[in-house]
Amino acid sequence: IAALLLPRLVERILDRTLMFAGAALLTAMLATAALTTPGYEGVLVLWVGIGVGLGLVQTPVGRVLVRSSGEADRPAYYAAQFALSHACWLVTYPLAGVLATIGGSSLAFWGLGLVTALALVVALRVWPAADEAVLEHSHPPVAHEHLHVHDAHHAHQHEGWEGPEPHRHPHRHAPQRHRHAFAIDLHHRGWPRA
């Protein structure tokens, strides 16, 4: 249901809002499951609610990764997100099994609900509501070498041996302050402070 609705929702609602709404729905559904002993119909409602919440959290991830990375770094970002999500499953699947074995399904729902609520609180703290794509920031002078093409950021002289673009050779960047769509990459190793 969430996957069918999301293409229209992402045009009108921020990814952050959708993802946090999904996490809140997941937390509420897991708490409801922990507090009740639902019949068949109740289990179906919880199942759909948990599925919609999970869909709202996971489906926009690709859009967030695209906005957060440069094209050259995108495969590494997707690999890191894949590894992180699977590491989380590596912890939560056994946690659910252990809690269910110790205290039944109610304890498992409480434990997973707590994990989801904590993840939501952490996400609210680290992902600011005013998350502008274009940021003004400063660069100190730097000399380095990496594969590049000549664009506004790599406007420097050549001696003729560097070869066709993209090419790699030592070059220097003068200090500068500018605005552009910001992503962590080779030239932006940390989030700007101001």
Biggest sheet: strands, sense, closure?
2 strands, antiparallel
How many helix segments? 5
Report how far the terminal alpha carbons are from each other.
Answer: 41 Å
What is the alpha-carbon Rg in Å? 23 Å
- Protein structure class: alpha+beta
**Averaged pLDDT, please?**
85
The helix/strand order is HHHHHEEEE
Please provide a brief summary of the model.
56% of the residues lie in helices and 13% in strands.
Task: Give your account of this protein's structure.
With 194 residues, this protein is α+β, with helices and mostly antiparallel strands. The chain is built from 5 helices and 4 strands. Strands 1-4 form a two-stranded antiparallel sheet. Strands 2-3 form a two-stranded antiparallel sheet. Helix 2 runs antiparallel to helix 3 and helix 2 crosses helix 5. The longest helix has 53 residues. The mean pLDDT is 85.
Features:
194 residues; alpha+beta; two-stranded antiparallel ribbon; two-stranded antiparallel sheet; 4 strands; 56% helix; elongated
